[in-house]
Amino acid sequence: MRTLLTGLSEWQWLGALTARLAVGLLFFFSGRGKLFVAERREQMRESLVAAGIPFASINAIFVSTVEFVFGLLLILGALTPLACIMLGGVMVVAIATSAIKNIKVPSLLGWLSEFLYLPEVLYLVILFWLFLSGPGWLSVDRFVFEAR
Q: Distance (Å, rounded) from C-alpha 115 to C-alpha 103?
């Protein structure tokens, strides 16, 4: 058992790669759809209006661009800390302006349970982990910054 547990740390890079790919692809495809499909961009604009975000048309393009560009960087493991900060910022705003308003539970434990169940919270936790741990072995950041 000890060999199994200690040997697993050698495979940490695979966890980081899987997290980067899953979350990066989610943001990349989401941003791509909102940027290049007029109906999706309009849905995004309407969501921002409903959330009370000012300059909804401009912010729809801005947020979609952030998701697209930084999602791609996350997939590649390039500028990973910056990508995590930018995408994390999008998640914090999404949680604060719309996701949290949908929680209608009277008890504190029930509210916390519903809050932790939000996908935006999970994405934020994964981005925070990647920010602190780095992109892993198979990444552009590793090849660029460790080559020096």
A: 7
